[in-house]
Design brief:
single chain, alpha/beta, 2 domains, 14-stranded parallel β-sheet, three-stranded parallel β-sheet, 17 helices, 30% helix, LRR_dom_sf, LRR_At1g61320_AtMIF1, F-box domain-containing protein, F-box_plant
C-alpha cells in the first residue's frame, strides 16, 4: 500500500528487515518482561538476594545441617518463610517447600502468587529465552500448580496478588481459567493479572496465525468471564482481533486498571476505540492501528504508545480528565507526519510528565510557538527527550521550555543507538529513513525568562560546541536553575556485539574522565549563575 507521498507502508518484513545479528538490519527493541520471575522488572536486586538466601538454605537442608539443630530452613518461623516465598516465583517456592516436611503446608498459606511459563523464543532477551520444549513443560506446570494451589489453599487467607504468565493453549487456558474463576467466586482476590503470550513470536506469525490467536483468546474469555471480570492488569501479544473484540474484552474486564497490547490490532489501518470506567493505564506496542481513540476513560492517568504506523495523528483524546503522563516512542521516517503537540493534546490540558523517544532517527515533533502550546503544556513539570540522534543541534528543544512555564526538570539523552538502527544505506533509502538534519527553531521572545526549571540532565554529553552552547542557552533563560547533571552515553549491552564494520562508524566518547578535564569544561562554560555542574558516572 502506498501512502499519499508515494512511499510504501512498512509491512512486517520491512520493519524487521534483518533480525538481531544481521549487520545491515534493525534489531527490534525488546518490549517484554525478561526472565522467570515477574517481580524482576520491579525489584531485581531484592529478588536476586532472596534467591541467594533460598539457595543457601536449600544447600543446608540437603546436607542435613547439624543433627542437633535440624535444618535451618524449616526452623525459621512461618511468617518469615512466607515473606520470602511470596517474593519469588511460586514454582520455585514450591520446590523449596518440598525440602522439608514442616514446610509442605506453606504453599496453601501463600497470599501472593507469581506463576510464569518463562519465555518463548523470539519474545525476549537472548539470555532469558528457554527452548520451546522447556517453555511448554513449564506452561503445563503453571496450569497444574495454579489449579492445585487455588483449590487446596486456606480460603480464610485473602489472595492479595495473583500474577500468571502463560502461553495461550486450549488445555492450559481451560485449567487456568477454571481455577482462577473458582477462586474469584469463592475467595477474596485482590490484584489479579494475566500476561498472555503466544507460541510464535510476531516475526514468525502469518496473518492467519494472528487471527487464530485472537480467536483462541476470545474463546478463553467467553468460557471464563468470571476470571476476566476480576482482573486488574492484562497484557496481550500477537493477536488480530475482529472489529468489536477488544471492546467486548474490555466490557468483560470490569475492574481492569492496566491494559497492554503488543503487536495487536484489528487489521491494517483499523481504529481502536477505548472506553472503560476503571482503566488507569494503557500501553500499545506496535500493531497496525491507524489511530487509537481514547473516547471515554474518566480514570486514565498514563498512556504509552510505542511505534505507530499511521500517517496522521496516532492518538485521539476524548474524555480523559485525569491523564497526566504521556510517553511516545517512534522511529520516524521521511513520509510520516510530524506531530504538532498543540493539536495532538488539544483536549489534554493536564499533562505533567512527557516522554518522547526518537530512537536515534528523525525528529518527529514540530517546534511550535508558545501561544499555541502553552494552553496544553501549561501544567507540564517533567520532560524526557530520549535517544536524540547525535549531531543534531539541541537548540530546538527550547521550544518546550518557552511554552511550559511550570516545567521543573528537563532530561535530554543523545546517542546513536547502533544496535537498533538500520545501517545499510540502500535499505535506509528504501524504507524512508532520513539523513540527520537539524530542526529549525528561533525563540519567539528572545529574552524570555523561565522561573521554575531547577534541573537539567543530559545523557551522552560530549565536550563540543553543540552541548556547551545548549547548556549556556538553557542557563540564560532558566534563571533559577540550580543543578546540571552530565552523564556519558547510555550503555547498551547489545551494542557490544556489533559487527566490526559498524563499530568503526561509532565515534568514541570524549566524556571527561579526570577531575582536571571536568574542571576545564566547567570553567569553559563560564556560567554566571548559581547552577552547579555535576559529572555523573
Amino acid at each position: 500500500m502506498k501512502n499519499k507521498s508515494g512511499g510504501h507502508r512498512r509491512n512486517k518484513s520491512a520493519r524487521n528487515e534483518a533480525a538481531a545479528g544481521n549487520k545491515n538490519g534493525r534489531r527490534r527493541r525488546n518490549v517484554s518482561v525478561p526472565g522467570v520471575c515477574l517481580l524482576c522488572k520491579v525489584h531485581p536486586q531484592k529478588v536476586y538476594y532472596l534467591f541467594l538466601l533460598l539457595n543457601a538454605m536449600q544447600k543446608s537442608a540437603r546436607n542435613g545441617a547439624a543433627a542437633d539443630n535440624g535444618d535451618r530452613l524449616s526452623n525459621l518461623p512461618n511468617d518469615l518463610l512466607l515473606n520470602i516465598l511470596e517474593r519469588v516465583d511460586t514454582l520455585d517456592a514450591i520446590r523449596t517447600c518440598i525440602l522439608s516436611k514442616q514446610m509442605l503446608n506453606l504453599p496453601t498459606m501463600l497470599s501472593q502468587f507469581f506463576l510464569s511459563a518463562g519465555s518463548v523464543p523470539g519474545h525476549h532477551d537472548k539470555a532469558c529465552v528457554f527452548s520451546r520444549g522447556e517453555v511448554l513443560r513449564t506452561n503445563n506446570a503453571v496450569a497444574r500448580v495454579t489449579d492445585s494451589i487455588l483449590c487446596t489453599r486456606n480460603p480464610k487467607i485473602a489472595i492479595t496478588k495473583l500474577k500468571i504468565r502463560f502461553v495461550l493453549m486450549p488445555h492450559v487456558s481451560l485449567t487456568i481459567g477454571r481455577s482462577v474463576a473458582r477462586a474469584m467466586a469463592t475467595q477474596k482476590v485482590g490484584a489479579a493479572e494475566f500476561e498472555i503470550i503466544t507460541e510464535k513470536a510476531y516475526t514468525d506469525c502469518s496473518p492467519a496465525d494472528l487471527l487464530q490467536f485472537a480467536n483462541q483468546l476470545n474463546n478463553f474469555v467467553g468460557a471464563f468471564p468470571d476470571a476476566f471480570a476480576g482482573l486488574r492488569r492484562l497484557w496481550l501479544r500477537n493477536m488480530r482481533f475482529g472489529e468489536l473484540d477488544i471492546t467486548n474484552i474490555l466490557s468483560t474486564c470490569k475492574l481492569l486498571a492496566s491494559l497492554r497490547l503488543t503487536e495487536c490490532d484489528s487489521g491494517i489501518d483499523s481504529v481502536l476505540q477505548v472506553e472503560h470506567a476503571q482503566l488507569v493505564e494503557l500501553e500499545v506496542d506496535y500493531g497496525e492501528f491507524s489511530r487509537v481513540e481514547l473516547t471515554c476513560l474518566p480514570k486514565l492517568q498514563r498512556v504509552r504508545y510505542n511505534n505507530w504506523y499511521s500517517y496522521e495523528d496516532p492518538l485521539y483524546f476524548g474524555f480523559v480528565p485525569q491523564l497526566s503522563k504521556l510517553s511516545l516512542t517512534k522511529t520516524g521516517v521521511r513520509w510520516e507526519k510530524t506531530l504538532e503537540l498543540s493539536q495532538l493534546l488539544a483536549n489534554v490540558p493536564n499533562i505533567s510528565n512527557l516522554h518522547l523517544d526518537f530512537e536515534s532517527e528523525k525528529i518527529w515533533v514540530l517546534p511550535e510557538c508558545p501561544k499555541l502550546l502553552t494552553p496544553v503544556l501549561g501544567k507540564l513539570q517533567h520532560v524526557n527527550l530520549d535517544n536524540l540522534p547525535e549531531g543534531c543541534d539541541l537548540a530546538w528543544t527550547m521550544f518546550i521550555l518557552e511554552a511550559a512555564p511550570t516545567l521543573e526538570e528537563l532530561c535530554v539523552a543523545v546517542r546513536d543507538h547502533w544496535c537498533i538502527m538500520l545501517t545499510d544505506e540502500e535499505a535506509r533509502k528504501k524504507n524512508g529513513y532520513c539523513e540527520k538534519a537539524d530542526v529549525n527553531w528561533k525563540p519567539y521572545a528572545p529574552d524570555f525568562k523561565h522561573k521554575n526549571l531547577a534541573k537539567l540532565t543530559i545523557y551522552g554529553f560530549q565536550p563540543n560546541d553543540n552541548f556547551k552552547r545548549y547548556i549556556r542557552c538553557v542557563v540564560e533563560h532558566a534563571v533559577n536553575i540550580t543543578e546540571i547533571s552530565l552523564y556519558d552515553r547510555k550503555v547498551c549491552g547489545s551494542c557490544g556485539d556489533l559487527d566490526p564494520e559498524i563499530k568503526v562508524k561509532v565515534c568514541p566518547s570524549r566524556y571527561p574522565q579526570t577531575a582536571e578535564e571536568m574542571k576545564q569544561i566547567t570553567e569553559g562554560l563560564g556560567l554566571a549563575s548559581r547552577a552547579v555542574i555535576h559529572f555523573r558516572s
